[in-house]
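can u do me a favor
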């Protein structure tokens, strides 16, 4: 008898969970076959493990509830420890059950509205198509229907989540993610539910962002209606560099960053000058925990002698954003980084990623600082390309740079005989000066009589 009662209870709970999931907001609802049990295990509240177990797809396509876009949490582990050790949970920024921004701010979140003229469900494809009329574009950035199903084009192939459609603004229990759209129709994932012809629909940006972001310093109200301009990631309404109402999701928690702080200061200044209201995740990708992406500005490493936006896949070129460094050749980056496996910090010490002299908001320079073998051998010199701005980081002894155009390294252990005869320390004669855009062969650094295995081949001294 107990088994029968238990079975009945499970069936009832399953039906209730299914009904409740249908009433949740996309994309975490029945349009993607979600049920409560997908995230909640017998009443246990889910943590980040529940979110990250589904958000695993880094290929940019074929998304489903178990293969959602891969994301990393915003934490010092995924960015840097420059501001200490810290982490943000998914639930600190997201409300997974409802589109909280729409729930609280209502029609302020609408990007587009219109009138449903027909409804056609495709059971086999698990999609629903709505034709529409009376299109009303509220936010001009979303006037092109082709963007509604690919709202950020944040991945290499441009395949990204779509806007969220509420097909009947009189019934907010119905919502779905847009797959594609034209000037006359909208196709969404799944079947949101019964919608009458003549219903008013609304499109919102989505992302399940909470209206209050939680951090170590408290709760921070925010507005997130779109990806650029007002009520987006970060926007200074005054345009003065001091935002009178810092409510962007990338602003509200930041107290030490070099741009867009929570108190409204440093808004669109320095390296972010001209980026007021820009789409922050173009450079600070969620799939990388919002760490600055190296390939946004330059290749990682740059191996092609063109600006990054013109390079292969826009991932292999020289700096082109936010301002060029003046460098025109990739030189031996490929040899050092890819063939020999050296890290950026070997030659650009204290300047990789979030280092204090990397894109620090006051300069756009190529920062040099030789620190070899884990810092055991430091210093040296580099004379770079004419016209390029160089600076240095602190090494001991100091690294010196100039830009007369020889493009040569000097006094650097890697380009030396290793040691003088008898094992003594290097002197000037032991260092070689290869050109950054030249070639290095055996004999340039070590003596060689040209006959491998005999004579003085690879004889230091």
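np, heres the sequence
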């Amino acid at each position: 008898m107990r088994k029968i009662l238990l079975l009945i209870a499970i069936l009832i709970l399953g039906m209730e969970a299914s009904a409740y999931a249908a009433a949740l907001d996309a994309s975490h609802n029945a349009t993607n076959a979600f049920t409560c049990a997908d995230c909640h295990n017998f009443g246990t509240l889910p943590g980040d493990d529940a979110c990250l177990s589904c958000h695993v797809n880094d290929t940019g396509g074929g998304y489903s509830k178990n293969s959602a876009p891969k994301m990393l949490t915003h934490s010092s582990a995924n960015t840097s420890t420059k501001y200490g050790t810290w982490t943000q949970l998914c639930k600190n920024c997201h409300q997974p059950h409802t589109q909280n921004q729409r729930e609280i701010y209502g029609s302020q979140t609408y990007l587009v509205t219109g009138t449903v003229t027909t409804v056609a469900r495709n059971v086999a494809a698990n999609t629903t198509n709505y034709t529409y009329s009376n299109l009303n574009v509220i936010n001009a950035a979303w006037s092109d229907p082709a963007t509604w199903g690919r709202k950020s084009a944040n991945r290499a192939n441009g395949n990204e989540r779509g806007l969220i459609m509420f097909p009947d603004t009189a019934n907010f229990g119905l919502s779905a993610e847009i797959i594609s759209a034209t000037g006359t129709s909208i196709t969404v994932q799944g079947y949101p539910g019964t919608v009458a012809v003549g219903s008013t629909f609304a499109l919102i940006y989505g992302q399940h962002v909470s209206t209050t972001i939680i951090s170590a310093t408290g709760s921070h109200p925010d507005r997130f209606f779109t990806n650029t301009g007002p009520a987006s990631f970060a926007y200074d309404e005054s345009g003065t560099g001091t935002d009178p109402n810092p409510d962007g999701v990338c602003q509200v928690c930041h107290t030490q960053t070099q741009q867009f702080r929570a108190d409204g200061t440093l808004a669109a200044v320095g390296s972010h000058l001209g980026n007021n209201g820009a789409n922050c995740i173009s450079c600070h990708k969620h799939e990388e925990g919002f760490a600055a992406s190296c390939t946004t500005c330059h290749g990682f490493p740059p191996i092609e002698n063109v600006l990054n936006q013109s390079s292969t896949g826009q991932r292999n070129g020289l700096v082109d954003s936010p301002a060029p460094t003046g460098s025109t050749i990739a030189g031996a980056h490929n040899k050092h980084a890819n063939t020999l496996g050296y890290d950026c910090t070997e030659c650009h010490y204290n300047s990789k990623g979030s280092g204090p002299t990397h894109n620090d908001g006051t300069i756009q320079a190529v920062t040099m600082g030789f620190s070899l073998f884990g810092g055991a051998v430091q210093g040296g010199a580099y004379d770079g390309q004419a016209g390029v701005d160089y600076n240095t980081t602190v090494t001991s002894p100091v690294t010196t740079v100039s830009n007369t155009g020889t493009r040569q390294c000097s006094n650097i252990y890697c380009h030396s005989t290793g040691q003088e005869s008898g094992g003594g320390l290097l002197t000037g004669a032991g260092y070689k000066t290869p050109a950054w855009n030249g070639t290095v062969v055996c004999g340039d650094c070590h003596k060689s009589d040209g006959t491998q295995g005999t004579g003085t081949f690879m004889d230091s001294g």
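Confidence is low (pLDDT under 50) at residues 5-16, 154-158, 450-458. hope that helps!!
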